[in-house]
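Exercise 7b. Backbone tokens:
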């Protein structure tokens, strides 16, 4: 590992100033479960590592008065699934947070870091897409917001420009009779990378028998995680039945463009999209109806 300096700013402005000063040679540290490995293996280099854990806004996990959820970019996974306010309302995000590495990793790894690492197979991103989450970004030019489904641009790359950092992720307030779910297929039982990851969110009508609105996020089937817009829109007004879930799965498969690699062939991954759409929609509907 190449030697680097360490900084621990306490404000967003100071962190952004360090990023701008070092012109691409400063790297942000939240949990460090990706960054430290990448620095050690020389996949990345840094002149300075900027630890964001002393910035209150980045470490804040809160539910606003209007029901919106704020997850600071440095909040570790275990805080997500141990917080009853989150666990009772964002099932898909909790499903994902519970399986990012083992429990030791989850004590450090953050949802924000998982997003900024921008792996096509990241577990949190399909769940965030399904739940219509929005990224809050700060940089030399001020602050801006970006929908999670527009954040990743290529494997390991995203929309963050020079000097910018992810401050936090905001979820909209939950609606009545709505819920989400996330599942992945992996060769091993735990601590593996998704062959396919799938997040679904639904809102049921007052009867609980019809899908009023839905969103589906896909992972590990393209260079970036995907929002299955056609399948999501098609679900609106459809009965909440296995037949509906299966048809939505067929529509979602149309946008999957996976590669074949050591984790599985492309055609099998496409097949898994249909399977996981059915499963996550069924779970989300069950949660929404309860």
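Sequence design result:
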């Amino acid at each position: 590992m190449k030697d680097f300096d360490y900084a621990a700013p306490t404000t967003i402005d100071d962190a952004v100033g360090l990023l701008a000063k070092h012109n691409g040679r400063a790297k942000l540290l939240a949990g460090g479960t990706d960054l430290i490995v990448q620095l050690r293996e020389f996949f990345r280099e840094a002149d300075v590592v900027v630890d964001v854990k002393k910035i209150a806004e980045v470490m804040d996990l809160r539910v606003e008065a209007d029901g919106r959820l704020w997850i600071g970019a440095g909040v570790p996974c275990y805080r997500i699934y141990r917080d009853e306010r989150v666990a009772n309302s964002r099932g898909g995000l909790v499903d994902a947070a519970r399986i990012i590495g083992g429990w030791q990793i989850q004590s450090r790894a953050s949802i924000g870091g998982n997003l900024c690492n921008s792996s096509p197979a990241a577990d949190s991103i399909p769940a965030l897409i399904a739940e219509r989450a929005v990224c809050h970004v700060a940089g030399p030019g001020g602050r801006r917001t970006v929908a999670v489904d527009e954040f990743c641009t290529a494997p390991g790359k995203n929309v963050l420009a020079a000097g910018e950092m992810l401050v936090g992720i905001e979820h909209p307030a939950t609606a009545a009779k709505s819920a989400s779910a996330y599942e992945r297929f992996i060769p091993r039982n735990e601590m593996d990378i998704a062959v396919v990851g799938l997040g679904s969110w639904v809102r049921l009508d007052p009867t609980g028998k019809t899908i009023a609105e839905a969103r589906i996020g896909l992972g590990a089937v393209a260079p970036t995680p995907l929002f299955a817009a056609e399948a999501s829109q098609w679900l609106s007004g459809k009965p909440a039945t296995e037949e509906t879930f299966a048809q939505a799965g067929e529509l979602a498969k149309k946008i999957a463009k996976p590669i074949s690699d050591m984790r599985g062939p492309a055609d099998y991954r496409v097949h898994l999209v249909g399977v996981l759409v059915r499963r996550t929609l069924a779970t989300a509907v069950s949660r929404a109806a309860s």
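Instructor comment: The chain has three domains: 5-51, 56-171, 178-289. The longest helix spans residues 266-289.
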